[in-house]
Amino acid sequence: MNTYDFDLFVIGGGSGGVRAARMAAQRGARVALAEALGQDGLGGTCVNVGCIPKKLYSYAAHYAESFEESHGYGWEGEAPRLNWGTLKARRAAEIARLNGVYANLLRGSGVTVLNGFGQLLDPHTVQVATLNADGSPGHTRYTARHLLVATGGTPHVPHFTGREHVITSNEIFDLEPFPQRLLVVGGGYIACEFASIFNGMGSRVVQLYRGEQVLRGFDDEVRHFVAAEMTKTGVDLRLNAGVTRIDRQADGLHVLLEDGNTVVVDAALYATGRVPNVQGLGLEAVGVAQGAQGAVLVDDHYATNVPSIFALGDVTARVQLTPVALGEAMKLVDHLFGPAAGKAPRGMSYDLIPTAVFTHPNIGTVGDTEAQAREKYRNVQVFRSEFKALKHTLSGSTERTLMKLLVDADTDRVVGLHMVGAEAGEIVQGFAVAMKAGATKAIFDSTIGIHPTAAEEFVTMREPVSRPS
To answer: Scanning 146, 213, 304, 371, which has the fewest C-beta atoms within 10 Å of its C-beta?
Structure first.
């Protein structure tokens, strides 16, 4: 019988890896986790350069419009000015606090945390690269019954002339000085969020996207509605547009566009997608099967083709969302070490995953887009409402809210729910629970709304704008 150093060895200290390590240790497993703790700490993309700091900056950006809107409610005087340095320092302090929380949770659960880059050597062996006391490189080898790859993803920047002058979402949080003129290249949720955020904080933002409309994969009506709202607030959104080259000159970055025009900016953010973070992991040498852009291929239990090696989260490029990685981690731990006492083994469903986009205004969505619903169901009803929120009847803002329900008319089941408006993510989360429970339009109709709120609109839409088809 083989004797291993650990029962589970996790490579990667992001949300999925930390959750798997902690839960496995609580089951009594001997667990180690390796993460190269350089500039960033534990918590991965979400904590360090993703969800958390991005949402904090989104809050910061909203204050500018809130101060302006307050005049409609009788508040007088000039709005304060943004101190970029203070915001960065406050954000950094909060991220450091969260890094410490993650470390304490791991160590408190009995996980051995290793500061170093993990590399697979064989189906049961990991080599962790570290620095010796004298600064020279060193390494230590560990064996484990199960190995888990949870290294997440990393921003992708295409190759073009001037590529060295651009930044990604990893660097945007600590730009110095604040970019008065910002170019955002990309049309996904990360690009749209940062375009909204920096526009709100005072940058003159130009956003370029090669496609016909931003936010591919979202409901088409939502896409067009959000693009119009972002443009209305000042984002210079240019569709069917791309970059030919970027040159640094004395007055800034000169960006030559495909149409021959030039844009001069202080910084150029490329948010053109993310790829699995697999470089240097040794996957090829061990024989782990990979798919497009290096994504680790796994089965329903997150096992690779090498039986002792598992992978989850963004490195598998399935659904790149932090809560999905957390759910996958808990399912894997139950599979490998059994469920917690008195609990049934966890499952993981990829249906009806709610998500939010922190553009200005926000997007909240769960279930099918209208196009997807019409492909799946014979008869689809569309319920839609667009209005000015009560707050803006006095604020002076022209922002509008969009709400949309998609119903399978044959079963009356609500199969898609979409919102563009203030706090859309907070509102849609609750409706996602109802949809997971199989809520019908009749149940929505029989639910009493909370008045006056925007959310009540979802339970008061009575007449479809589109009959069954």
So the answer is: 371
Distances (CA, A) of 114 to 12, 162, 278: 10, 37, 19
DSSP single-letter state for residue 465? S
Give per-residue pLDDT as tens, 40-53: 789 999 999 999 99
Residue ranges per structural domain of the chain: 6-154+276-337, 157-272, 355-459
Active site residue 62: no
Element (H, E) at 34: strand 31-35
- Six token digits for residue 72: 């409609």
CA–CA distance, 45 with 163 (Å, rounded to integer):
22
Which candidate, 42, 309, 30, 38, places its Cα nearest to that of 149? 309
Phi, psi of 87 (to 5 degrees): -60, -45
Q: Is the pLDDT of residue 135 over 80?
A: no
The H or E element spanning position 106 is: helix 84-108
Domain over 157-272 is classified CATH 3.10.20.30: no
Q: Quick check: 326 and 30 in contact, CB under 8 A?
A: no
The shares of helix, strand and coil residues in the chain, as percent rounded to the nearest 5, are 35, 25, 40
- Report which DSSP code applies to 295: P
d(CA 140, CA 146): 18
3-state class (DSSP) for residue 439: coil
Number of Cβ within 10 Å of residue 308's Cβ equals 16
Say whether 355-459 and 6-154+276-337 share the same fold.
Answer: no
Rg (alpha carbons) of the chain, rounded to whole number? 24
Q: Which fold has domain 6-154+276-337?
A: FAD/NAD(P)-binding domain (3.50.50)
Using 50, 70 and 90 to split pLDDT, how confident is the model at 2? low
The values of phi and psi at residue 53, to 5°, are -65, -35
For residue 363, give the amino acid letter: I
* pTM (predicted TM-score): 0.96
**CATH code of the domain made up of 355-459:** 3.30.390.30
Among candidate residues 254, 301, 418, 451, the one labeled active-site is 451
Query: What band does 138 get if pLDDT is binned at 50, 70 and 90?
Result: confident
- For residue range 394-409, what is the model confidence (pLDDT) as tens digits? 999 999 999 999 999 9
Q: Is 426 helix (H, G, I), strand (E, B) or coil?
A: helix
Provide the pLDDT for residue 130. 81
